[in-house]
Hints:
Layout: H1 2-11, E1 23-30, H2 36-52, E2 56-63, H3 68-80, E3 85-94, H4 96-102, E4 106-109, E5 114-116, H5 130-146, H6 151-156, E6 175-177, H7 178-183, E7 189-190, H8 194-200, E8 206-210, H9 215-223, H10 226-245, H11 251-269, H12 275-293, H13 300-315, H14 330-360, H15 382-386, E9 392-395, E10 402-407, E11 410-416, E12 426-433, E13 436-441
Parallel strand pairs: 1-2, 1-8, 2-3, 3-4, 3-5, 4-7, 11-13
Antiparallel strand pairs: 5-6, 9-10, 9-12, 10-11, 12-13
Helix pairs in contact: 2-3, 2-9, 3-4, 3-5, 10-11, 10-14, 12-13, 13-14
Amino acid sequence: MIVMMAGWFLLHPFNLFAKEEASLIYVFKINETIAPPVWFQTKKAFQEAHDLGADVILMEMNTYGGMLDAADSIRTLILNTQRPVYVFINKNAASAGALIAIACDSIYMADGSSIGAATVVDGQGKVLPDKYQSYMRAMMRATAEAKGRDPLIAEAMVDPSVSIPGVSDSGKVLTFTVNEALKHGFCTARVNNLDELLHHAGIKSFKLIHQQLSATDKITRLLINPFISGLLIMIIIGGIYFELQTPGIGFPLAAAVIAALLYFAPLYIQGLASHWEIVLFILGLILLALEIFAIPGFGVLGYSGILLVIAGLTLSLVGQIPDNITNFDFMKLIKAFLLVIISMTLGILSSVYLAKSLLENPRFKFALVKEMQSNEGFTVAKEDYSRVVGETGHAVTALRPSGKVEIEGDVFDAVAQVSYIEQGSLIKVIDYRNGQLVVRRII
Length: 443
């Protein structure tokens, strides 16, 4: 016996004292609405787990759901990864959260947690038409099938008309408690912390690495939020429009440039915005500038510029378009287009309102530091301006919006009530304000 043990030790000299190597567990949290910032965080977590050679990716979840496109991106990432992905539902995995959880290899739930209620709704909680529900039902079924879970139960979490005897009554969207999820295979075990979870998974020796977002990551997460993206579009368009209403170049244009950089930079870093989409936006601005400052009237170049600006802003929000266009999610494109159009409209309206308020409000006075005295040759013939209010004439130059008009043989400085008046157009004086006549074109 002693001889046999000695022989084994000679063949395996280090095994006698070897310790079990600790498993590397990468942990990150989803504790907010599922949206582009969460997709950014999840994609970064999976990349870091891959770079570190993590044995398991562990997601701690507490969410009421969110945007379907972001949830689908996360679901696809989980299904395509080669590492085990566990989810610890610490109270809620509703709607889009349920879709993500079902995509994981193992589902663990804390006491008092629930999973389900995945019906697609709008921002006000109103149930969307069946074409949206059909897509969600298919995703839930396919995800459940991929992980060996009952696809009919997953579908019942979306569709209240699905009836499963002993599981779901027709007319009610399915949501599982911990015990129900355990019974029907949608929960691996009931645990109350990560140590219990890993112990149940048979991982006795482990090292936890928690995701740490840098300051740059946090700024990027903030800027790709749809609300912030919409606000930046408002500043871009509003700033440009405001600048066109006033002579010279000033703060509004600077704000628009900074907003454009903040809009495109994080989208480009994330791989959503490509070079050509940014080029479309810049080319659109160039065409608009040529139309407004170099070519009389507003025609093909101007409208083409508007379309290119809209296209650049919209396409940068939807990511890469696949080679097979049939696989493209057109709902994502429609949502991005609506966000851009609404934000642009609000930006223009805000610009008009601010311009009117700032120029007409007596509390905001814009004046030169140096006083221009009449004895130095400076004068304002206010009576000459006032006497032509209500008179008609024609535009000596194009008004963009400022220019020259001729009335009764005299030439006056004027500003168009509406942004552009072509040279030679008939005009009527409707007001005298800030040393200029305010005119409108006679149709």
